Amino acid sequence: MNNRKTMRRIMIALCVLSALIYILQIVIFKDPETTFFYLFQDLAFLPVSIAIATVAVGAVLDEREKNERIAATRMLRSSFFTSIGAVMIRQMMEGVAEKEKVKEVRPLLQGLGAQSSMKQIQQHQQQILSADIRITLNQKIYDGVNQMIVDEHTDLLVLSSNSSLLEAECFTKMLWGIFHLYDEYRLRGSYEKLSRGDIEHLESDFSDVFRLLLANSVENTCWLAKTYPNFYGTVKEKICKGRAHENI
Question: Which of 1, 29, 173, 246 has the fewest CB neighbours in a 10 Å radius?
């Protein structure tokens, strides 16, 4: 409240000072016509000045602040992959119906390094998200992913409650997809109770989440390679270890 009052007082003082200067100019030079000419000329440029200062510059600053907020969440996103993300990728990999489809996106997963731009990363992510990778569900995958989500549910809720994290759109879609799977588990129950229609619906959901996991792993590995190069090798080994290593 005090800051607002101070700002109002400063604005009023500046306006009064400006008026006094114009009056003084008229008194000294006795040329009100010229004074008013330049006054209106300054007023005519005012909308352009506001447009440049508030719209153009403001948009640039807003975008910069957004990128800084997203950058501040990279460690949180990385911790997701070193806990549940890597394990979930390996678990779902066992259900990929056509392994060749995953081999097709292997260059997209491994072809970016520490010097990759955000535009390059997003292009690779988009190609992965549009790839025709399908999960064939079985009880092992169904129960295994369910157990992972239940075990990490609190941590996932903490992640999703971070407002800055939600500005990372691809990561947010992945989180919502995982929470949707959690709701599906609560709705449909055990694997033995699933109908053929239930399984087909869940296979579609699992496939969407799997592609989102792979897409987000691209950005995560690039960030690790740039920020923590020594740690990067360990994380890559964790994600690609075991049967997943044969296909990614």
Answer: 1
Buried b (16+ CB within 10 A) or exposed e, 4-33: eeeeeeeeeeeeeeeeeeeeebeeeeeeee
Alpha carbons 163 and 69: distance in angstroms, whole number: 9
Angstrom distance (rounded) from CA 109 to CA 128: 9
Confidence of residue 236 (pLDDT cuts 50, 70, 90): low
What is the DSSP secondary-structure string of 26-73?
HHHH--HHHHHHHHHHHHHHHHHHHIIIIIIHHHHHHHHHHHHHHHHT
Q: Are 161 and 154 in contact (CB under 8 A)?
A: no
CB 243 within 8 A of CB 94: yes
> 237 vs 12, 33, 168, 226, CA distance in Å?
64, 78, 25, 17
On whether the CB atoms of residues 124 and 112 are closer than 8 A, the answer is yes
Q: Which residues contact 227 (CB under 8 A, 6 or more apart)?
A: 74
Q: What are the pLDDT digits (tens) for 73-111?
A: 778 888 888 888 888 988 898 888 777 666 666 666 665
Read off the amino acid at residue 43: L
Secondary structure string (H, E, C) spanning 90-104: HHHHCCECCHHHHHH
pTM score = 0.67
